[in-house]
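FORM 7B: Structural annotation worksheet

SECTION A. Query
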Amino acid sequence: MRLRFSLFFTLAALIAAPSALAQSAFLNEFHYDNDGGDTGEFVEIAVADGILDVEDVVITLYNGSGGASYNTVSGADLTVGASQNGYTLYTYSFPSNGIQNGSPDGIALSTTEGDVLQFLSYEGSFTATNGPANGETSDDIGVSEAGDTPVGFSLQLTGTSATYDGFTWASPMAATLGAVNTGQTFESPAPPDPDPVEVSFADETRMVREGDTLTVALELDYNENEPSGPVTVLVSFVGGASSATTADFASASVASATFPGQRARDNMAEVTFVFADDDLVEGPETATFRLAVTSGDAVTGSPNILTVTVDDAPQTATVADARAAGVGESVTIEGVVSRAAGAFLYVQDETGGLAIRQTSGPLFDAVASGAVAPGTQIRLTGTLSEFRGLLQINGSDLESYDVLGTTDAPEPQVVTLAELAENGEAYEGELVTVRNVSFAETGTFSAATTYTVSDDSDDSGVVTARVPNGSDSTVDGTEIPEVADVTAIIGQFNADDPDGGYQLLLINAEDVGNASGGGGGDEIVPIAEARAEGVGATVRIEGVVTRAAGAFLYLQDETGALTIRQTSGDLFDAIASGDVGPGTVLDVTGTLSEFRGLLQINGGDLESYEVTGTAAVPQPQVVTLAELAANGEDYEGELVYVAGVTVDGSGAFTAATTYLIDDNSEASGLVTLRVPNADDTTVDDTPIPDGPVGIIGVIGQFNADDPEGGFQLLVLDAADIDAPAPSLDVVVNGGFEMPAPGVVTGGDVPGFALNVGGAVTMAPEFAIVDDVAYEGDQSLAVTVNGTGANPWEIEVAAEPLTVEAGRTYLYSVWARSETDGGTASFTIGQPAPSYNELGRISDAALTTEWQEFTVEFTVPDGVTEIRAPIHFSYAANVGNTIYIDNLSITPAGEVAAENPVEETAATLSVTNPIRTGATVRYSLETAGDVSVALFDMLGRQVAVVADGPAGPQERTARLDAAGLASGVYVLRLQGEDVMVSRTVTVVR
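SECTION B. Predicted structure
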């Protein structure tokens, strides 16, 4: 297991480090026994200059009888001696009988950090029982001093070497205290290897509450090494070392991160975990996380263990209940920020709103930086106070706050001034909209100023409009309208009357808008409907950005797409900063115009836009150039994929240039490839491919004369050249998740043709059923009532299927029959007129159990379209029902290639595509804990399928896709040392 290897490597490094240092500091000479009374006893060590500081060395004397230490000498107390070739000698002299006479005794050399450099002994070996060498067995040097050794002799190393290992201990000879030994020559020591690249936790301990998101910071230290590529690490929850369990997580309990491996790039990374809020009072629990390097040239440093204290979530109250508690009470609330500026933010839930005032501190800074803003989900604990009737949590009364996530900002309640005058307390702290508000004053708004307002319901002036202090609002200096719709927070400023003094607090300049005349503004319409409105129409649409660069973005929904062009302004800046990009969901209002046939919202025709969220980028539609030439208008602005495209050109692409292309379906030049202006694409100056490749692009148009011509494949991202097919599976609706259950005929089943020959004696019944399925919710049922002359006279054919010429594919289908004895033939071939077969499984015997039938086939050169018919016209099938499910055709070997580890380490399978849900099957070669989760194309986890133990026995879990938007997702199994991914398409 990779994690075990990582732990072993770390331990080995710790053990090896003292050994390496021992070659740079070692015992060189000593004297302990002589004739008569012991005298002149000393120890001499050699230290490599610049590698180890002598003050970091400790000498410890050990008694071999029992193994305990009996004296310690600090390196700072040593006397410096001679130097030679990068080594310096240091000595320490002991009083008479200061060093014991053996049988055996020993000397340990260690660092002040406790790392043992040497543990040598004389007259035998023994095991230390304390001190730095505790538990280690000494190395006998093999020579000794007898009781008749002449005074002035010693034991010393001889020979020529750069390390201790190259010297030899010699029998007693005349001592050379502080000088190079007799017969000894030091060679220059080798410089030490630099410390390895290390990855570690930024913290050793953290504290969170249940329901919180824990962001774990990781650090990469190059230690003077040069980067050698990306480094990927795995952060794993260690259940056995924790009082918490995987049930305490609302997310996966493992996460990975990758450092780019470039000095110029950030050497910090983050992973996140979400802890579940179980509403139980359990007291603090600990969650221990271990860090391991899974790929790249690095080791784990210190700390590589993170201990997190997980405390119970505060018992929260609704905002209404908190308000009812009253002044002086400490409350904990959770809600969504409706407005935030300067010293004030306003938090709202379904029951009410509350003002939070902070003139300094972390929350004030978070508002200033935008980290806390409208849409921020937040938990706050503090004591309620009141100022001029306004209930709030003020200043130091705020005890704590936690950001829980983000969502849409609360929708304002539409109210009248009369309702506010009558019952303003019910709306205090909440976001409201008042229609058609008339302002008595004119000119421009000023900060810290109150204005007289009225509407059709009330002209008493009881409710006023207030522009807060300059830092608390962006309204200061904007024009006062005569009549406008006003969105505001309800405040209060009245020390005398608890039921009076209510104010419309104007926070954002855009909250004071055009009068609606009592209506609600234009409704969002599907993009296809907006396109049908035509040039000059003002439309409001919402969709997902598929591509965005420079002056252009392309917005797409399930019905169509539209080009948005902005050469300056807020949206242009948002694209440049990356705040708006692929996956951004935009609500756009503007007037349609046309340029050279391309329908768009251009420049000043854009009235407004709003980021309303994020979503998976729509999967490119697989089309041919012939389809685009025949019906390009249907694809204008949409993201498409064309397989097997040959570009007429060589060298590198050039910005603002059009290229002829061919995909064997269309080579007349009716559809061209266009590289936009340099600012609008990253394809400029990238290589033109030599042969046929898959290309993803947006369909544009440039033709002033022919509204049906001039369609272009706009390539905007360098990664879209030689792009993989949008899905490994070239079969559309292979799981028969469309249409709804019921009898089907002809072209009712997307992606399939249902064919019955004229010679069939009684027509079969084709039906989509939801009571029998191998995977997912549905399968196709074929009930045979009569036969024709040949098996293919009753046929279900997946067609047309776009493939790449010369590529090898794997055909797979699952089938069963209502009763034993069913028969079917499965074929893959070219379409009419050749019907050339590429693969076949003939006369397959079916049983009442699901069986998989597979065959590999290779697409001939020049072929980019195939069909896959299944034949049922067999006499044995009359009166029987055959069920078909999970028909797929995928490039051979490419599913396994997606995995970063060997396929045998784990298995993961799921039907594809899915509609409302599917069964996920998984296993591990070696038993352990895994997480199986679904991620969107931005890498965000959207569903947890399983989290717990797994092993060689296959397990199943249900993937619920009912609440997911259609699009492409990644299903990922992740364990301590394994990660397997599968691409999943959700259809609606």
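SECTION C. Observations
The mean pLDDT is 88. Residues 99 and 129 are 18 Å apart (CA to CA).

SECTION D. Sign-off
Analyst initials: ____
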